[in-house]
Design a protein that fits this description.
It is a single chain. By secondary structure, the protein is of the alpha/beta class. It is 24% helix and 24% strand. The protein has a single domain, classed as Metallo-beta-lactamase, Chain A (4-Layer Sandwich). The protein has a six-stranded mixed sheet, covered by helices on one side. The protein has a six-stranded mixed sheet with strand order 10-11-12-13-14-15. Strands 5-4-7 form a three-stranded antiparallel sheet. The longest helix has 12 residues, at 48-59.
């Protein structure tokens, strides 16, 4: 199986990992889960991670073909649009985004100005759909459970799992967001565990438990043997009980309200109003 080159980019404020995945033969590349920073106090965005990604693409003489979102993130704003504006590429996400858009369009009362049909993205990817990055073959693996639209991108021998799995010492993602389901996540992880044991696995977050150094790459074999939530052949019922008990103790992500509004728009800010200022809504006493 072909082995892409993978370069990580860490956004410390949100604990998010983004990746540039490239084909050594053709120099074609994809960016996975880019981040646009946001200072919630001032409302100012920060494109420093986008700039780092663009600098890397240029230095390595890579041709950007795809910007791949694993799901509509609730903890950071997508940097897909500033990356696309400066480097090109098509913004893609799993087709399940339409259900997420429909749900949150109602929450934010967007029905008159927002179509929940996925047209904001350049490409909606179907279950098991295949596409290419140069000579690298890529496949879309459905991995819902954290969210209903979550997918994993299998690119050569590397799997980009979004929030479904963290590093083995951190376990798995929460399942209490709209459309989340612990049993469904368990089933999705078993689908991943059926991949070859030496498949490289890249996570979207690392919160560095116990202050350890940053980690972002593991393998299917390591996850199946050592993941503290789902490894060692933990049963489905045990996982559901563990996950639901843990989720009940978690606070909402700090940036969930702005993130969702931007990310269902494929990383675009809401349209500017007649004073040329863009605004985000805050539902009061809802979440």
């Amino acid at each position: 199986m072909a082995a892409p080159h993978v370069q990580h980019f860490y956004h410390a404020e949100t604990g998010t990992l983004s990746y540039v995945v490239s084909d050594p033969a053709s120099r074609d590349a994809a960016v996975v889960d880019p981040v646009l920073g946001l200072d919630i106090a001032s409302g100012r965005t920060d494109d420093s991670q986008v700039a780092d990604i663009l600098q890397y693409l240029g230095a390595e003489q890579l041709k950007l073909r795809w910007i791949l979102e694993t799901h509509a993130h609730a903890d950071h704003l997508s940097g897909a649009q500033p990356v696309k504006a400066r480097a090109g590429g098509s913004v893609a996400i799993g087709a399940g985004i339409c259900d997420v858009q429909e749900y949150f369009a109602k929450i934010f009362n967007l029905q008159k100005s927002f179509r929940a049909d996925g047209h904001q993205f350049d490409k909606l990817l179907l279950v098991d759909e295949e596409f290419a990055i140069g000579e690298l073959r890529c496949r879309v693996i459905p991995t819902p459970g954290h969210t209903s639209d979550s997918v994993t991108y299998l690119i050569g021998d590397a799997a980009f799992v979004g929030d479904s799995l963290f590093m083995p010492d951190a376990g798995t993602a929460r399942c209490d967001f709209p459309g989340g389901d612990a049993g469904v996540l368990y089933d999705s992880i078993q689908r991943l565990f059926a991949l070859p044991p030496d498949t490289r696995l890249f996570v979207c977050h690392d919160y560095q438990p116990d202050g350890r150094e940053l980690r972002f790459q593991t393998t299917i074999a390591e996850q199946a043997a050592h993941n503290i939530h789902v490894g060692k052949s933990r049963t489905r019922d045990d996982f559901i009980a563990l996950r639901e008990r843990r989720d009940a103790t978690l606070q909402l992500p700090r940036l969930i309200i702005p993130s969702i509004q931007v990310n269902i728009r494929a990383g675009r800010l809401p349209a500017a109003e007649n004073n040329e200022v863009s605004y985000l809504k805050i539902p009061i006493n809802h979440f």
